[in-house]
Every structure is written in structure tokens, then in C-alpha cells.
Known about the structure:
The protein contains 15 helices and 22 strands. By secondary structure, it is an alpha/beta fold. The protein has four domains: 8-126, NAD(P)-binding Rossmann-like Domain (Rossmann fold, 3-Layer(aba) Sandwich), CATH 3.40.50.720; 132-226, Alpha-Beta Plaits (2-Layer Sandwich); 236-327, 3-Layer(aba) Sandwich (Rossmann fold); 378-457, Regulator of K+ conductance, C-terminal domain (Alpha-Beta Plaits, 2-Layer Sandwich), CATH 3.30.70.1450.
Amino acid sequence: MNYRNHMEIFIVGGGEIGKSLAIHLARDGYRITVIDREESVVDSMSNTADVISFQGNGASYATLKDVGAHEADIFIAVTDSDELNILSCMTAHMMGAKHTIARIRDVDYARQNRFYKDKLGLSMIINPEMATAMEIYRLLRFPLATRVEVFAGGRAELVEMSVGENSPLDNKKLIEINQNMGINLLICAVARGGDVFVPKGDTTLQKGDILYMTGAAEEFRKSFKKLKLPVKPLQSVLIAGGSRISYYLAEVLHRQGAQVTVIEKNLELAEGISAAISGASVMCDDALTYFDSMSKSDIANTDAFIAMTDNDEYNLVAAMYAESQGISKVVSRINAKSRLKVLQPGSKICTISREDVAADRILGYSQSLLNAEDNDAVESLYRLMDGKIEFIEFKIDEKDKKLNIPLKDLKLKRNILLGCIIRDGKTIIPRGDDMLMPGDTALVATIKWQIARLEDIFAE
């Protein structure tokens, strides 16, 4: 493992996002200081992760001076208060912190992100609700996808999906899928029975496998059609709960031409979201009651159901009911992962956590900043399966090793795979005769390895 103990990271706010960040970054060997007003949060953090915990006001100059925030390589503020996060980052930046990241949820503040970056020195602004809405939107594009990530400026995608009952992928060898079916995608990793591995050409896929596939964004729809996997465009979407996530999601779905119905039983919230999105239908009702009022034809014509209320139990019950009615894509918001136990084995319900989405985005951005400090060219990092698998996006320059050599003449370490190469705006699924060249962007899949730089993927 490549430790970077000289890197200093400060996190203001020990809630779910702050805790997740602290655990992951401390595990990677960085020195973490967590600041929170609440003594119970500070004590809990000290017992949970290998971090320095400090009770105090993270926006106070005196507090930040006491903990040495001026030495921060990255300063992250993720409390529940937008104003405190902005002030914390601004103060830390003026004290000398190299990079600052703020959680900002208010729509008016979020619209001023250019001002905050240009004038107040914020490196990154994360709006958890907007990020969650965009993740759900990407999930909705492919009914079988359980996660979709974009990289290289949206030119390539990483899709997680399961091999289900009667899937055309079940009992097929990878070489058969790639050659006989003409699929221009690469299956980089397979999760099976809790284990994760890089597949080979003779690997036979099985029902229940979770696949991680990479390729050009436009190739997924073409390839899924060839595989006879569903790619029906969204026409009708039902959203339960009038939250901010619902607002952002309904807005983007409406712009893409989908018919959106939002169900919110609180009259004030229903009126607010109706006024904010003119193109969405808003019903002041309970989602389960509304389901009962729908005809079989209405349900059959509903392409997706999204449960976005603040109640985990309600979301899961509503999602299970929607799944039982045959709605092909069902997504449920959930905060406590322990409640996932109520889902039946084989359930196709996708679950999503606003806190996990925000933590993943901040973690990926932080990792790219930290690697850049170490003169690496990591553009982004995606950590999946509780850290068992990582997808790392590298920007390649002339200083990198093993360039302009056919890949068939190079040997990668075990459980490492080159997922794709982006060159001059085109996405290349790497074959034996392809080469890495200066200016390329490369996506690398690693399992149980921690890769700090591109040269680490090659065997000696």
C-alpha cells in the first residue's frame, strides 16, 4: 500500500458524509482531522476511524488555527449548514489551505458556484440532492443497470448490472459475447458470491453475477439491443415524495421528454413543486393510495417508479409494491443500509443514498487532488463493492512508462484490467494491437490493489 502520511485532510462535520469520508481516507493512509460541535459525534468518530477528532466550531478562525488548518492539503466542510460550510472553507482558504470542498444544498447558493470558486477559492461544490438526482437519471436510462458512472467528460461510461433470470448473458462465455455477438463493450470485473475478479475470455457468466462494463456512452444502447436487453426510452415516470431530489429529477426528466407525475401528500410541498416545475403533474396524495387508483393500463405504461420520501420503510414498501405490479425500473431512497434486509433475494429494486452519493463524489475528487499533489495524473476514482474494486481514470503524458508499445507485449498485474482508452474524443475498447499514447485518458479496473500511478498496473 502506498501511504501518503504527509497529506493533511480536514473534515468539518461528522455526520454520515463526514464519517464515510473519514473512514475511507484514513484507510488509505492520509492524516485526517475531524471537527464537530457535538461531543458525542467527536467521541463516536474517534472510536470508528483512525482520525484526530476535535470538538469545536469549524468556521471559527481560532478553532481552525488551533488544529492547524492552514496546513490542509484538502479542507472539506459537510455540515448540515450551507452558511457554515461556505464560511469554514473561505476561512481555511484565507489561512492557506490548498483545496477546499463545500457541501451546498440551497438552490440559490448552488447557482452561484462560479462566484464561490472564483472569488472565495472553493475547489469543489457538492449538492447532494442534485448529484443523487443525476445518478438516478443515469440509472433510468438502462432498466437493468444498478449503477452508472461517467468519465472522460461523459464520453465513456461504467455500468453495473446483474445477470438475471432468463438473461441472454447467462451461461455465455465472454469470448462468445464479444466475438459472436459483436459487442463493443468490455466486461472489466465480475462479482460472484461476495468475491470479485477480472474475467478472462473463457469465463462463463452465471445467473446472479454482477457485471461491471465499460465503453463509449453511445455504444451501450447499441450493444444492449444486440444482446436483446431492454433499452426502452423513458416515457412515463412516477415519483413518490416532493423532496429536492424529486424536484431536480423531475426537472431533468421533463427536459428529456418524459411524462413525470410527482405524488406528495403534504399540500404545501405539493404546491411548491407544482409551481417550480410547470411540466410535471403533481398529485397531493399518498403514493400507495394513488397506486390503488391507477388502472392496470396506467401501471403497465409506467416505465419507472422512484420512492424519494424521507421515510426508509415507506420507500421500501412502496418500491416492493411497484415491483410486484411489474414496473420495470424501481428505485428507492434509503439511508440505513440495515433495512435492505427486507428486500427479497433476486429483487431488482435499486437503492440509493444521498449521503453515499455525496461521499463518493467528494472522495473521487479528493483522490484526484491528492494524487495530483503527488505528481500523478488521476482524473477521477470510483470505489465500488465496499472498496473491493476501484476504477481509476488516468491522464497520460510523455513521462509515463510503457507507452507506444502494443498491449499484447505488456503484462498487467493480476486482477488489473485496462477498461478503455479515450483518444481524440473517441473511446477505444483495448485489444492486443492497441497502445497507450501521450494525451490518452485510460480507465483502469483494479481489484484488491491500491494503484497510485499508471506504472503500478504493470508487472515487472
